[in-house]
Design goal:
121 residues; mainly alpha; 68% helix
């Protein structure tokens, strides 16, 4: 059922896992760059721009909250099961990621998706 001896389940989960692992690596300073990009994107929203003009601390808080959420989600994608659990139960080491991918392609979830996205499938 697995593609490799290590229990990797194909190219996409392995690639997503590796990218998420690199994004959460402190050596790559992702947080520093995300602060810049998120702040710039937030400033393009008129309501946020007006709120930032009135209270600059609010923009910093929104930016920090969004960056923390992004890093949290990247950490969830980079999560792996401990090697002992993988060997004992023959589970995939990337079970959290494969569950996420399974939910993404589940017919029930696809049926609830906005029809505007259908051409992109």
């Amino acid at each position: 059922h697995f593609v490799t001896e290590l229990g990797l389940e194909g190219i996409l989960p392995a690639a997503v896992h590796r990218i998420a692992h690199r994004l959460t690596d402190p050596e790559h300073l992702l947080r520093d760059f995300l602060d810049l990009y998120v702040r710039d994107e937030l400033m393009h929203v008129p309501a946020v721009r007006a709120a930032a003009a009135a209270n600059p601390a609010a923009l910093a808080e929104m930016c920090d909250r969004n960056v923390k959420l992004f890093l949290h989600r990247a950490a969830q994608l980079a999560e792996t099961l401990p090697p002992d659990d993988v060997q004992k139960s023959e589970l995939s080491p990337m079970l959290p990621l494969t569950r996420l991918l399974a939910h993404a392609v589940a017919p029930e979830n696809l049926a609830r998706m906005d029809f505007v996205w259908m051409p992109w499938l």
